[in-house]
Design brief:
Length: 427
């Protein structure tokens, strides 16, 4: 019997290797039926998208906390430990509650395994979240999809509001080969009775989302069309903008997270609370956006040398990272440490880094989905590329090389950053 967090970690790691990603909702529905359908007692905002889900969720969460609302959140992946994926307000689930939630599911997992249709690691974790949140009497749950939307494990819920942050080419073997096909999968979270907030601007995917909303008769609000940002001001310390939706406008919205994409994520959050909630105080909106931060997203770890970690894990994320670097450190030279999952489009990610760097240091990390460093190295075309399979040594070497007016940027995978962040905090 699994009795400790270490046991659960090992179980989840083995489960991920054995079952991987297996899409569909039938196993999830079976598991929740056995639990007594705890998800049906909760109120949800559901968030899907290629990039920006976590940041948008965090902005909404901080606004609601400032308003005094008791809010739960389910996010993935984690940066340091599994507990951070299940939170009530700002507090991670305790080890005791995590173990209790797992043990509640254990007999049902065993029963489903015996029938040859056992739940995946992510399905188990999602069911644990539903069970835990239902016992904690929260006002609402912010639910982030894992991958896609239509067949995502989280798509058993009936939200009162849906958000689609962005659409880019990712997981094409699963979600489709065009932006329209991927948008169709993400739009699977749109449900009757739940307005849709969208940050998608490209014509093809935006049209798919709008048509899905129209077919269900739900209101659809698109960034740049139905709500807007303006008067953008940026510095190394933060940025500010103005927001407008219909006859509502909010001036001088200040924030500490950097990058134009974070302004768009914050705008999605403001639109969400204005459309989906009643009587949210403007002071709560301003306070929430200003206080929100999201670890591993253009996060400065040290000043001497200047080290930034960023969870870009697809080509669109790399593009945003480069844009943010140029905006905030235009006179600096950039050095990258890069590693990736093998099922990501690492070729295009490397292309995005190669034109703007003085060096790319290729490394690898332990995970069944991790790309081999040699494969990444051979794919990299930069004339100044190096390889070190020991990522800790690669970081030490990168820090040693990084001098004045240079930035060391570590990127390519959020899972990689979960290891890196812990290492850097101890060294």
């Amino acid at each position: 019997m699994v009795t400790t967090m270490k046991d659960i970690n090992h179980f989840f790691e083995r489960r991920q290797v054995q079952l991987g990603m297996n899409f569909g909702l039938s196993r999830m529905e079976t598991l929740l039926t056995e639990l007594g359908d705890p998800h049906k007692a909760l109120k949800y905002i559901h968030i899907a998208g290629s990039n920006g889900k976590g940041s948008t969720l965090q902005y909404i969460k901080e606004i609601l906390l400032a308003e005094g609302i008791r809010v739960a959140s389910f996010t993935s992946p984690y940066l340091v430990r599994m507990n951070e994926q299940l939170k009530i307000n700002a507090d991670e689930i305790s080890d005791k509650d995590f173990i209790a939630a797992f043990r509640e599911l254990w007999p049902f997992i065993q029963e489903m395994d015996s029938k040859g249709d056992g739940p995946t690691q992510f399905e188990i974790l999602t069911a644990m979240a539903f069970s835990y949140f239902s016992k904690k009497e929260v006002d609402l749950v912010l639910m982030e999809t894992g991958l896609g939307g239509r067949l995502d494990t989280t798509n058993v819920i009936q939200p009162f509001l849906s958000i689609i942050t962005s659409i880019s080419l990712e997981h094409t073997s699963i979600l489709g080969n065009t932006l329209g096909e991927i948008a169709s999968e993400k739009a699977g979270i749109i449900k009757s009775g739940a307005p849709v907030i969208s940050g998608v601007n490209a014509w093809e995917p935006a049209k798919v989302i709008e048509e899905k909303a129209s077919s269900l008769g739900v209101p659809h609000y698109q960034l740049g069309k139905d709500f807007h940002v303006g008067n953008v001001k940026q510095s190394e310390q933060g940025q500010s903008f103005s927001f407008s939706l219909a006859d509502r406008s909010i001036e001088n919205v200040e924030m500490q997270m950097l990058g134009r994409h974070q302004i768009e994520n914050a705008a999605l959050a403001i639109a969400a609370v204005l459309v989906g909630m009643e009587n949210i105080d403007e002071k709560s909106i301003l306070k929430g956006i200003e206080e929100a931060k999201w670890e591993g997203r253009f996060e400065k770890i040290s000043d001497e040398p200047l080290v930034i970690i960023d969870g870009a894990h697809n080509p669109a994320g790399i593009d945003v990272l480069m844009e943010t670097l140029k905006l905030n450190y235009p006179e600096y030279k950039y050095r990258f440490i890069f590693s990736s999952f093998k099922d990501k489009n690492y070729s295009q990610m490397l292309r995005g880094l190669e034109t703007e760097t003085i060096e790319i240091i290729i490394t690898e990390f332990e995970h069944e989905r991790a790309a081999d460093a040699q494969t990444l190295y051979e794919e990299c075309r930069h004339e100044n590329k190096t390889i070190n399979k020991d990522w800790q040594t690669a970081i030490r070497e990168g820090r040693r090389k990084t001098g004045e007016k240079e930035v060391l940027v570590i990127t390519g995978s959020l899972h990689f950053l979960s290891l890196v962040r812990g290492f850097l905090s101890e060294s």
